[in-house]
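Dear colleague,

Thank you for sharing your sequence with our group. We've completed the structure prediction you requested, and as agreed, I am returning the results in plain text so they can be pasted directly into your records. Please verify that the sequence below matches your submission; if there's any discrepancy, let me know and we will rerun it promptly.
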Amino acid sequence: MGDDSEWMKLPVDQKCEHKLWKARLSGYEEALKIFQKIKDEKSPEWSKFLGLIKKLVTDSNAVVQLKGLEAALVYVENAHVAGKTTGEVVSGVVSKVFNQPKAKAKELGIEICLMYIEIEKGEAVQEELLKGLDNKNPKIVVACIETLRKALSEFGSKIILLKPIIKVLPKLFESREKAVRDEAKLIAVEIYRWIRDALRPPLQNINSVQLKELEEEWVKLPTGAPKPSRFLRSQQELEAKLEQQQSAGGDAEGGGDDGDEVPQIDAYELLEAVEILSKLPKDFYDKIEAKKWQERKEALEAVEVLVKNPKLEAGDYADLVKALKKVVGKDTNVMLVALAAKCLTGLAVGLRKKFGQYAGHVVPTILEKFKEKKPQVVQALQEAIDAIFLTTTLQNISEDVLAVMDNKNPTIKQQTSLFIARSFRHCTASTLPKSLLKPFCAALLKHINDSAPEVRDAAFEALGTALKVVGEKAVNPFLADVDKLKLDKIKECSEKVELVHGKKAGLAADKKESKPVPGRTATSGAAGDKDTKDISAPKPGPLKKAPTTKAGGPPKKGKPAAPGSTGSAGTKNKKGPETKEIVEPELSIEVCEEKASAVLPATCIQLLDSSNWKERLACMEEFQKAVELMDRTEMPCQALVRMLAKKPGWKETNFQVMQMKLHIVALIAQKGNFSKTSAQIVLDGLVDKIGDVKCGNNAKEAMTAIAEACMLPWTAEQVMSMAFSQKNPKNQSETLNWLSNAIKEFGFSGLNVKAFISNVKTALAATNPAVRTSAITLLGVMYLYVGPSLRMFFEDEKPALLSQIDAEFEKMQGQSPPAPTRGISKHSISGTDEGEDGDEPDEVGTDVVDLLPRTEISDKITSELVSKISDKNWKIRKEGLDEVAGIINEAKFIQPNIGELPTALKGRLNDSNKILVQQTLNILQQLAVAMGPNIKQHVKNLGIPIITVLGDSKNNVRAAALATVNAWAEQTGMKEWLEGEDLSEELKKENPFLRQELLGWLAEKLPTLRSTPTDLILCVPHLYSCLEDRNGDVRKKAQDALPFFMMHLGYEKMAKATGKLKPTSKDQVLAMLEKAKANMPAKPAASAKASSKPMGGSAPAKFQPSSAPVEDSVSSTVEPKPDPKKAKALGVSSKAKSAQGKKVPSKTSLKEDEDKSGPIFIVVPNGKEQRMKDEKGLKVLKWNFTTPRDEYIEQLKTQMSSCVAKWLQDEMFHSDFQHHNKALAVMVDHLESEKEGVIGCLDLILKWLTLRFFDTNTSVLMKALEYLKLLFTLLSEEEYHLTENEASSFIPYLILKVGEPKDVIRKDVRAILNRMCLVYPASKMFPFIMEGTKSKNSKQRAECLEELGCLVESYGMNVCQPTPGKALKEIAIHIGDRDNAVRNAALNTIVTVYNVHGDQVFKLIGTLSEKDMSMLEERIKRSAKRPSAAPVKQVEEKPPRTQSINSNANMLRKGPAEDMSSKLNQARSMSGHPEAAQIVRREFQLDLDEIENDNGTVRCEMPELVQHKLDDIFEPVLIPEPKIRAVSPHFDDMHSNTASTINFIISQVASGDINTSIQALTQIDEVLRQEDKAEAMSGHIDQFLIATFMQLRLIYNTHMADEKLEKDEIIKLYSCIIGNMISLFQIESLAREASTGVLKDLMHGLITLMLDSRIEDLEEGQQVIRSVNLLVVKVLEKSDQTNILSALLVLLQDSLLATASSPKFSELVMKCLWRMVRLLPDTINSINLDRILLDIHIFMKVFPKEKLKQCKSEFPIRTLKTLLHTLCKLKGPKILDHLTMIDNKNESELEAHLCRMMKHSMDQTGSKSDKETEKGASRIDEKSSKAKVNDFLAEIFKKIGSKENTKEGLAELYEYKKKYSDADIEPFLKNSSQFFQSYVERGLRVIEMEREGKGRIPASTGISPQTEVSCMPAPTSTVSSIGNTNGEEVGPSVYLERLKILRQRCGLDNTKDERPPLTSLLSKPAVPPVASSTDMLHSKLSQLRESREQHQHSDLDSNQTHSSGSVTTSSSSTANIDDLKKRLERIKSSRK
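Please find the predicted structure tokens below.
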């Protein structure tokens, strides 16, 4: 047993690894106990056992292993780190537990595996279990299968991946071991339970007996959908929900759509893909062409067998499809047609999406083959086309389907309609957008009027299906012309239709031959449908003109109606029959005269053809009046215009009459229902007059009015044809001019480009130059809308003309077309399809390019041409390619059908001859432009192969491929490219060129997209492998692309995808992901949708083709009002709102203009901080150089890429300076609108500007400086403070420019430096400028010196860094400079300092050479020492306070205004918030140096004193009333959602905007003042207090320092805050809710406020401080006593620890504690003593007695003792029972202290007073030997003598003398100098005065020390030690010494101790006996001070309830001059 005792002593971990099994057993048992004890899953204890867990499960001893498994299970269940062990433990379980004979071991092993799955480690567990299936030991295999089955049964198929299990199932069924086969059967049944029939195909090849058994089992399974019974940790709350659901019972769905229940399982996914291309018979392609049909049949049957495989491997099926297509289309044997159709069905089913690229070729062929009547052929074709439909989208095949719709054969028409009907069923409202629906409806509407009934029925069915899918609202506009009978039929059909989506999956039996899609489980159907969604940009329908329609309602006047009002008349009508165009028959002249005479005066009609022009003129005037008064509905437009056209009509010779006539035409067109018939009557005449000098303008107006009435496209066409059928060139040129203008006003919607182009060509060929010029101008306007494609039509013009056209286009480049202003009101929407408009940004009208007529070139792509392209001889191949290029060139715009060309060109992309590859790429580029957006359908078969070319080794080939891909993407958008697996397959190829090019391309495109297809995730694994590629460039590109992938996929998905990586890779990738997360840009705002169609320079609105019915022309009503929802994106006109306020997304294009409408700066959260970290951590270069090297520029470019718009960055880093100017102009424009972005990228902007400083171009420099001025103005308005990083990487370079030779630049730089001081402390600027004085450039030296002078003048000496002495010495060196300007600047700067600081300058600058010194003295004399009163700046900046400043100026030598960042900044040190660097101005500052240098001259002139209105001060204190504003209405119904309202208002309290905050406070005050409502605040008190002290902190740090803020505003805010708090703390129930932490911060804020010297300087400052005083008392009395005591103790501890905290602060905290001590007798019972004693214990731990005694002041220790003493007195010995919360009491100093006290109080007889007791506690033991006393005194005198501790020493000496009045200190004084002796005496006297009733705290502190005099000594008013300019501590001795000298000078004896009574001083405001101005000053100030303080005390006393003790006020006590001096000193110190 000896051994036993050995191991028994070992710690647990060693026991567990012991070689003795017993030891291990014991270790495991202990470990188990430990695991069960640890409650916190995140406890660090867990990590200690990480290494053990594998040992626990793999122990070699079976008994021990069992215990180990138990322990492991507990560990996995409870430890948060357990997941790390998954792999090793599960593999251990598989290999060492599953083979154990004991069932218990196996059970535990399985449990452990399941527990790992529960803690989210399912994948890893499954991987190990699947590996276990390959084990040779059948026991292990069985156990693994069982575990998988249990996991599936419990967790469900979402957690357990079925695909890998199903893959191995057939193998398990073949196992020799019965146990394995049985277990496989069980798991197959379990899997079937989850996925139903999807399991059948993978198991179809197993043994038939087994399959039969399975079938039997499967039948027995319940039909309900299974539900998981166990959940992952993250989903456990689902359990509860599940129980509820179970009670409700699941939907019993039929077997048909079981797959839908678990949508992620699709049988197709579970299958292995089969490769069939290689298995095709060798002679297949020959046989299929054979003459004998039997041979062809054999070939097809071979294919049919192969395509029966349910899933086919992707590959190049183009040839096979082509062969099958040929059979379907051309074979005469119908049996073979059906067979080929079946083969196509098989291919489509097996390939799914991958078949999509061939769909376009096959669909037209199949549809045309429907002319066959045989049912079996028709059925085969139907199945084929339905299967093919599921592989593509309706969008992609719409062109082909629509083309077949016009076929003459009724069967084809019928079958096509039925196919459309079936296709629609698979669509949803989103995948069937209006743009797609419109052409289909148009075609189907023709069919419903067909003569053949079957065609009509099929069309009804299709329309009915459409109606069901998208709803009436969307379809009705297209059915406007359908009569009621037919409409009812359509509706009847729609009711019968059952959709695939959301309804039962089985398709309803179609009428006629339409059958449900056979041979397909609904699952695969559903999968197919999913893919049909997201149909992207619209395709144009065939460009037939739909009848142009007009909105109903009485037409509005012809003025452009306000977009808001548009179409309101028509909006309500759903059916809108009156949206038809106004058509009227032509009336005869007689009818017209009759109608006209009814509305016109008779005289008017008679005089129309008078021969006297005056009569005609009078007649016209009457005519005009009549028209003006006529009502729209009664106006016979046609009759009126016929009257006007009546002889003399348009041949009128008098121009006045003619002008009137034309004006009337315009009026009629505007005011009446003007038809095209009327227009035709007048247009000829108008065109005739358009060139007339006098009448031309009127003619144009009339034409514009007609264009509004009859639509511009029609009018323009009429006018153009009329103008060009005339010969008059003036008319022609003016018509063209009118049209140019009209297009701008109406927009381009619906214009017939083709007709114009022929007219424009005629005009260009005109001999008259004016006509040519007008034509070119018109082209320029068209270019704005059509874009570069317009030029194609004019390429064959003469070079000279072409260059003019190009010049015009160049002018238009980059401009965006204006938003249309006319043509809106009449043609507004009829309101029928408003709803969808906003939701479907995709479907706004088609592109203008689609108006261009497209040529059909498929007939030119002959088979000879195709075979040429594929010829063996490269020359012939080249010829073929040349021909193709020629065909495309000639056709300009082509239709999408290009026959066999794609396959031919695809072959050339991998041509061995690189020249041909490049030529092919060029052709493809041409093809993209020529085909336009329709090229989409070729992306898969031609676009992806272009990407493959990116992997070419030749640089130029890659560049050409990239250009081609971009040209394609510009037409198609990115969606087509990202869908499917093609792109990820490309990225998978390990070709470094391909990878880097492709990633670079994605990185460029992804950021511009708003959304991407989900397939993007497929690229992620390959992206990760690229991150670790061997090639550095690939790695870099992958890293660049990472943030953009994350932008679309989100961090979570990306991180999850790392799961499959190796551990080392995973860590690296995750680190990169973290980094990318920081730089992840936001998705582009919706408005900026760059749907890259080649639409022209950049067209922000989209326009429709002429086929668009009018309601679509809403898009021409774009109004440039930014959409308020687009937060922060810029309000460019592209952010348009359409007439009804719906958004019409813009469509911009052309790469350079890709998306200039978005924000130029992208806000990247924490971007700037990350960059600073990188720079600190030296991950990037520090921005520090003499001239910028390339790597700096590159680095900046990289950093900018994530947060600056791409196009702007291109401009910024362009090699040409003009682009820099452009960039700056854009930045200036966006400065105001993008404040956040600018501040977020400020460091980068400043760095980029430093690069511009090194440019030689002046215009860029000027522009940059202009921008900087605006920038710094903005930053100061935003109260931004430059970071050190921003300053150091910018200021030095800016200072370089101050030495520029050009005067104007220097001025600008100085102005910028000036503004910078508002955002960066002047004291920090100083060293940078100082550095600039060392430059070689003399101009720079001079300017820097002048700037230094300005800084000193504006901000005082404190800006001089590191010390004034050093700084001035450096400046003085320059007095001897060679350059005259530098010398002058140096002298002027020093003179400035002299003016501010007087003769002290000479001390500071040290010794100068004689010559320099004489120059300086001369200069000082010359400047006649004009003392600069207040720093000038201050007077300028604060006009409201100038009077008070000026009146003070004469009285006080104004000291320099202090820069907050200097070390003297006491105010900041108190607040403990060093972030905000503020500039605080000081009004009252005595310049002692100045007074000292006064050399005794007695100046007797009376200083003008500020006349304070002292009467106000004696008013009783009023709590500032917050000005109550109207409480916002939602406050009254408080109890509806009170909490959220209150939360909202409280959140506003802390607002940075003062008014918002005041508003919120007012509302809260309203609540607090009403008793019935006050309880609503309950529960929000902490929140409210936090907001309040945040606001206090904000005022202290920001508002008070803000020069521009009215201080009255701040006072108002303070009043509100304090008023509110007082209201709050009067309601005891609410006050008690405040928690300790919050009270601590609140007290911190209030005390800081009381000590804020800046407040006192404000008029109502005193009032504020008094109110705060009152508030503090309220807080102390009313809040929860435990909480406030605790808070004060913690605050005291913090303030003593904080070196920055001022002694005053601690002192006030202690005063609060004393007050609490006084309240203790009343409150002791409500206090949680245990907590208070714990706080005291912690305090004593932080400050042991020794440390407390070292404090400068003895108050802390006294305060503590008093508190404890009072507690002891009140509680007696019971107090020792309250130490429960202190862990180790015996070590606590507190317990010892309390025991001593108790003992002491027991010893006392009770006769001694408290005071003595207290003294007794702190007294130096009186029996102590004399030697000890001497040592003590020596210590004290040592302190007095030392610089630092003088004050403390004096205080101790005073205490000592007071205690031992007989003590003899003479011996210590004897040896010292006379001065030291008098200093000590004087010091003691000062202390005595202060203690004897002068113990008031200066007014700035505010709390009245109502301390029990009996209990505590009164406090010394400690002067906070002030640092001198060098930052050293200065003791009071220095000031006392100065005062002494002053006194001697002024004739005052220093030893006298006369104290004239204060009253006499107050009563004699006359000049004192010794009329020195300094004395005058002192006395006056002290009077003010005195009166302030007395008054304040009396007030406080009246306001506060005295609990005990009395306060001695010194209203009557005498004050000697020393005292006044002391006060002065205090004033001075509190100012600092």
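Summary note from our side: The CA atoms of residues 979 and 1013 lie 6 Å apart.

Kind regards,
the structure core
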